[in-house]
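Milestone M4 deliverable, item 7.
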Amino acid sequence: MRTLWTLPLAIALMGCTVLSVTAESGPAVTTGAHNKITIPATTPLTVKLDQVVSARTVKSGEGFTVTFTEPVTVDGMVVIPSGAAGAGFVSSKSQNSTEMELNSVFVNGRSYRVTTSPIPFNSKGTLRAGTKFTFDLMLSLKVVE
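Output delivered:
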């Protein structure tokens, strides 16, 4: 009789343990502590290059990294802080012009894909590390706070 009583209790406790592990290892759920903030399209993203990009030697598709020089705010709240990292790529290269775009932003340990308007620069020019650019966000971006 004692075994019959402890068996349902053991099963119930195992179920609680499984639910607890699933909740912790599953995808993040938006709660009051973690809000999703939408950065609207056309928001300017001001960054500086972390390395030299030479139009003479760079290839289409080649990547580069950036650092945000100005915070991105939504309704007075900083969503992407100054100093945050980002990455981009050379989206187009021709004899007359080379274009670059941002494709990711790193905020609070998370990577977010972004789509920005391309920025053209002279196909014979060299952009030094520290060169500032302002990309415009083409699609809205949801960031977990």
